[in-house]
């Protein structure tokens, strides 16, 4: 059993996004976090202090732990943002912004 | 903050100090401040003299307390958007220079080397290397700790104790009495209330300011940067909302954006008009901020006196009472100098700055209070105890710029 | 001016939906403003439409109630009585003279543009979020909130991992464990810190809700069927792993909060779904000036009609105190009826909602008892090592927080925040406030958060005139 079977889902056609330069499959409607989870990825941010890995924590947009860079935009909440075909997702380092 | 500085310098002068506060440490305007230690925004005069003294003392404390108070001698950059403003800024800086301020003109084409993300098209600016910053709540807490003075937070001063001849002999609080021959009123915006408990008038009033705090960023704003119009707003007597952008990065990451000024009493409710003006002004200086998010905003109440100068020194109307309040938006910056001057007067030394402009009784038009002269000495002869009373819940001169 | 009075409902969960429907049925023009793409809130969170779930019911309880709400919403949306604004993230509600209100929202999911909805009355149905108390290792990827695991399952049809430990305390753990197990996860253990004794102590109050007891029995059956090991009176001591979760240590709690010697053991897992009850979202209400109440001052105070003490502002559901979906429905319904009458210039007749009021009283009693039975795991604060990160955003450790309280004299949450930065980051203390309060002995008070979510400065600069 998996969740898609449980809910008898017939998702639209899967597509590919890039996570740190490697292709990851995704389903239409999934959030960035859901797609990454489905691909076995649980961390996509490193903290600006200790550089520790983080991913989803609250899952409902409250904790901001799942911040990630999507198509060059930092600080997207992976648990809220739907994944789109062709998205370029990158692990967010620190503030997610360069100082230059 | 001012109370903490008074406690530190009084205690270093050999006095036995106790600190009383209605609320927590940094619970008043200090906790709502940005921690500006500025000389750049002050015109030549007594406040600038105090600012220069304070800047030297802060620098020493910075060496001593290091990163614990996040002291950063980062310098200020005042920018003028129009040629006329630049001319005025240059004239203003000329006067400051004669008073001992370092002010280096920055031509338009060199602004970017100081602030790479500054908006294009500015007419020019002025760099003030003596401007610095601390994290005000940490500064207050660490100065208090360094003073070694017992701190009674959550104690409310309810009245003054007096000797038979009417001089102050300490304070009465809701948790008991504290005996001391000298009481320092460092109650900030609430300093007028404390003065009233001693039977004297000190017309301290609140001037509300909002600060916007952004998401954490890398060092994209390197100095304290503000528009030249800011100085006019600081000096303004207007009760209505005035905002001029003041933008700075912090050691911790967020950019702080001030500074609105309005006289609305102690109303803490969110004014979207104020934060809208702050945001627009900040984006005008640093266009990249448009897409940066504000995580929070908060209001603070600057304690101002009608002539925009603080009250510092003994109160001849109430022997034993000393004032150290009413620093408006500069309380963090002016705290060290104020503390030093208070310690000097408490120990009978000649203060290193002339306190005449800061006389607490200067607002008594009819001179109806105490005729007793020679009270300047009271409390200074044998003050083995001084109450640095940071007074009611919210104290201190804060630095909402 | 013949325009009907206009109600803005913030939040499309059970409380907001019930309120919107009750008001709309009585002629009120309603704008339902919600952050999600589909109505339902957390409880009735629906799979994203493109996932084509033909049996979303399998993920939910009380599906009939949801169908009623959903159909009612559809009916009123097509008749034009309700405007449903999805993906609208409300960051502030401002009062203007009138009284009228301006509801400021960011358009999602990018949340880079703002929009303002004006209304004559507001129903705050902003729901709640999960409280998680820290323990060593709780910041490791793979450690998620119990509600978060459930939300990702319901909304994204995805599991956090293969082998899950569900832990913490409170009634939410049961549906999370059974839900994850039904969806194919191996639930290695359900670790509930409340012991059987605590649950028994409150048995009379709990037993007064036969439906809830039946629900409990149903969950017990599901857990047994999925062979989930249930450890009551146990707690997670630590989450282990370097860059992601590999195992948790679990131990039995004595009644005094100490660990029973020799009881600690390791449970390998790749996911820990953990929660210690819920907290109300009160930011919008706080900024409007509504009085906050509740045992910890962290819920919006509402009267029998669900009115707050700010004229024109009603509140219902978790935001007035945690009590679950059924209570939220009752409160929302009462609020909607009260609003319809009040906006029409009439005093409502409470007899018209007597049934909802009875169910409200009963459920509140029930949740008060639940609250007492499911306290935080005793001794959790003492077990925090000094290097355990407490504020996840600003990476402030338990040691730093303790120093602020002990050496710098901070005696309240705001001062601890000022001195340590705990609570100053992206989440503005929503995650760490209960932990900081517990660590320092400060009371948990609702922080002032004028921005209920981060707002781009460009949106602030472009705000319309009040």
If strands are numbered along the chain, what order do they take across the biggest sheet of chain A? Answer: 2-1-7-5-6
Helices and strands of chain A, in order, run as HEEHEEEEEE
Kindly report the average pLDDT value of chain B.
88
Biggest chain-to-chain interface with counts: A-C, 48 and 56 residues
Q: Supply the number of helical segments of chain B.
A: 9
GO molecular function (chain A): iron-sulfur cluster binding; oxidoreductase activity
Pfam families (chain A): Fer2_4 (PF13510)
Keywords (chain A): Oxidoreductase
Protein name (chain A): Proline dehydrogenase
Structural summary, described in words:
The complex is a heterotrimer of chains A (100), B (401) and C (466). Chain A is mainly beta and 100 residues long. Chain A is built from two helices and eight strands, in the order αββαββββββ. Chain A has helices at 3-6, 32-38, and strands spanning 15-19, 22-26, 45-46, 53-54, 67-70, 73-77, 88-90, 92-93. Chain A is globular and about 45 Å long. With 401 residues, chain B is α/β, with parallel strands linked by helices. The longest helix of chain B has 20 residues, at 46-65. In chain B, 62% of the residues are buried. Chains A and C meet through α1, α2, β4 and β6 of A and β9 and α3 of C.
Describe this structure in a few short sentences.
Chain B is α/β, with parallel strands linked by helices and 401 residues long.
Strand and helix layout:
The complex is a heterotrimer of chains A (100), B (401) and C (466).
Chain A lengths: L2 H4 L8 E5 L2 E5 L5 H7 L6 E2 L6 E2 L12 E4 L2 E5 L10 E3 L1 E2 L7
Chain B lengths: L1 H11 L3 E6 L14 E2 L8 H20 L10 E5 L2 H16 L5 E4 L3 H4 L9 E5 L3 E2 L2 H12 L3 E3 L3 E6 L5 E6 L2 E4 L2 E4 L5 H7 L7 E12 L7 E4 L1 H7 L6 E8 L4 E8 L10 H14 L7 E12 L6 E4 L6 E5 L5 H16 L38 E5 L12
Parallel strand pairs in B: 1-7, 1-19, 3-13, 11-18, 11-19
Antiparallel strand pairs in B: 2-6, 3-5, 4-5, 8-9, 9-10, 12-15, 12-16, 13-14, 14-15, 17-18
Helix pairs in contact in B: 1-5, 1-9, 2-9
Chain C lengths: L5 E5 L3 H12 L3 E5 L29 H17 L2 E4 L2 E9 L3 E8 L5 E7 L1 E4 L3 E3 L12 E3 H11 L6 E7 L3 H10 L3 E7 L3 H6 L1 H5 L2 H16 L4 E3 L1 E7 L6 E6 L12 E4 L2 E6 L1 E3 L2 H6 L3 E2 L5 E2 L12 E3 L8 H20 L10 H20 L15 E3 L4 E2 H9 L6 H8 L12 H8 L14 E2 H5 L5
Parallel strand pairs in C: 1-2, 1-7, 2-3, 7-20, 9-16, 10-11, 10-16, 11-12
Antiparallel strand pairs in C: 4-5, 5-6, 8-17, 13-14, 14-15, 18-19, 21-22
């Amino acid at each position: 059993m998996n969740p898609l079977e449980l809910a008898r889902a017939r998702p639209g056609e899967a597509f590919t996004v890039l996570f740190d330069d490697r292709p990851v499959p995704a389903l239409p409607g999934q959030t960035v976090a859901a797609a990454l989870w489905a691909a076995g990825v649980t961390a996509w941010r490193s903290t600006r202090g200790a550089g520790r890995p983080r991913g989803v924590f609250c899952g409902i947009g409250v904790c901001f732990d799942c911040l990630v860079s999507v198509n060059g935009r930092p600080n997207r909440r992976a648990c809220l943002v739907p994944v789109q075909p062709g998205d370029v997702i990158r692990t967010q380092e620190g503030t997610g912004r360069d100082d230059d | 903050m001012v109370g903490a500085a008074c406690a530190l310098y009084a205690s270093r002068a050999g006095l036995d100090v106790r600190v009383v506060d209605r609320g927590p440490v940094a619970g008043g305007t200090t906790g709502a401040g940005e921690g500006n230690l500025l000389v750049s925004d002050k015109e030549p005069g007594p406040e600038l003299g105090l600012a220069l003294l304070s800047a030297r003392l802060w620098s020493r404390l910075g060496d001593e307390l290091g990163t614990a108070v996040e002291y950063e001698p980062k310098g200020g950059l005042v920018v003028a958007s129009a040629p006329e403003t630049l001319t005025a800024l240059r004239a203003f800086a000329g006067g400051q220079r004669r008073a001992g301020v370092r002010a280096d003109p920055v031509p338009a084409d060199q602004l970017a080397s100081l602030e790479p993300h500054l908006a294009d098209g500015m007419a020019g600016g002025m760099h003030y290397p003596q401007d610095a910053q601390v994290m005000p709540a940490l500064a207050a807490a660490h100065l208090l700790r360094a003073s070694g003075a017992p701190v009674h937070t959550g104690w409310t001063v309810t009245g003054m104790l007096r000797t038979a001849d009417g001089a102050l002999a300490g304070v009465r609080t809701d948790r008991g009495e504290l005996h001391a021959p000298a009481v320092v009123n460092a109650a900030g915006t609430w300093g007028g209330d404390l003065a009233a408990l001693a039977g004297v008038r000190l017309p301290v009033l609140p001037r509300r300011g909002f600060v916007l705090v952004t998401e954490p960023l890398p060092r994209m704003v390197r100095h304290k940067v503000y528009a030249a119009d800011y100085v006019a707003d600081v000096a303004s007597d207007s009760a209505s909302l005035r905002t001029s952008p003041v933008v700075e990065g912090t050691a911790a990451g967020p950019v702080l954006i001030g500074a609105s000024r309005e006289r609305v009493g102690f109303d803490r409710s969110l004014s979207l008009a104020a934060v809208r003006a702050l945001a627009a002004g900040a984006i005008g200086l640093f266009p990249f901020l448009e897409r940066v998010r504000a995580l929070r905003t908060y209001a603070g109440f600057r304690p101002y006196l009608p002539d925009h100068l603080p009250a510092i020194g003994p109160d001849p109307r109430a022997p034993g009472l000393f004032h150290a309040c009413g620093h408006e938006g500069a309380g963090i910056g002016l705290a060290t100098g104020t503390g030093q001057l208070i310690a000097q007067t408490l120990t009978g030394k000649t203060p290193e700055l002339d306190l005449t402009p800061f006389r607490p009784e200067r607002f008594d038009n009819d001179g109806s209070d105490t005729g007793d002269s020679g009270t300047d000495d009271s409390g200074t002869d044998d003050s083995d105890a001084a109450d640095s009373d940071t007074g009611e819940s919210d104290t201190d001169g804060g630095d909402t710029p | 001016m013949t325009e009907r009075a206009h109600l803005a409902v913030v939040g499309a969960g059970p409380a907001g939906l019930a309120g919107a429907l009750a008001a709309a049925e009585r002629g009120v023009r309603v704008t339902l403003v919600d952050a999600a793409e589909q109505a339902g809130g957390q409880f009735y969170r629906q799979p994203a439409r493109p996932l084509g779930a033909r049996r979303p019911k399998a993920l939910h309880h009380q599906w009939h109630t949801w169908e009623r709400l959903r159909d009612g919403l559809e009916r009123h949306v097509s008749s034009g009585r309700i405007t449903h604004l999805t993906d609208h993230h409300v960051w502030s509600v401002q009062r203007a003279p009138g009284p009228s209100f301006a509801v400021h929202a960011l358009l999602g999911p990018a949340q880079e543009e703002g929009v303002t909805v004006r209304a004559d009355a507001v129903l705050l149905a902003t729901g709640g979020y999960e409280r998680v108390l820290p323990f060593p290792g709780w910041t490791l990827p793979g450690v998620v909130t119990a509600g978060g695991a459930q939300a990702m399952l319901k909304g994204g049809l995805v599991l956090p991992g293969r082998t899950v430990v569900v832990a913490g305390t409170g009634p939410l753990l049961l549906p999370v464990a059974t839900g994850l197990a039904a969806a194919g996860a191996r639930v290695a253990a359900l670790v509930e810190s409340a012991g059987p004794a605590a649950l028994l102590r409150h048995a009379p109050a709990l037993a007064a809700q036969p439906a809830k007891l039946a629900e409990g029995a149903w969950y017990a059956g599901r857990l047994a069927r999925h062979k989930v090991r249930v450890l009551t009176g146990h707690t997670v001591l630590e989450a282990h792993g370097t860059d992601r979760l590999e195992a948790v240590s679990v131990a039995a709690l004595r009644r005094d909060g100490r660990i029973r010697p020799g009881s600690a053991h390791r449970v390998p897992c790749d996911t820990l779904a953990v929660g210690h009850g819920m907290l109300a979202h009160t930011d919008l209400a706080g900024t409007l000036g509504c009085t906050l109440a509740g045992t910890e001052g962290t819920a919006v105070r509402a009267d029998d009609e669900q009115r707050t003490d700010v004229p024109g502002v009603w509140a219902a559901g978790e935001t007035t105190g945690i009590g679950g979906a059924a209570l939220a429905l009752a409160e929302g319904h009462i609020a909607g009826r009260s609003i319809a009458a009040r906006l029409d210039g009439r005093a409502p007749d409470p007899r018209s909602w007597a049934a909802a009021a009875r169910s409200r009283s009963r459920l509140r009693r029930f949740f008060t008892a639940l609250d007492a039975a499911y306290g935080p795991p005793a001794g959790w604060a003492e077990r925090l090592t000094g290097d355990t990160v407490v504020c996840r955003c600003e990476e402030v450790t338990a040691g730093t927080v303790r120093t602020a309280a002990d050496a710098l004299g901070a005696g309240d949450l705001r001062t601890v925040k000022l001195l340590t930065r705990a609570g100053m980051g992206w989440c503005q203390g929503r995650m760490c406030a209960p932990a900081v309060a517990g660590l320092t002995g400060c009371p948990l008070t609702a922080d002032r958060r004028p921005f209920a979510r981060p707002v781009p400065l460009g949106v602030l600069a472009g705000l319309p005139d009040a």
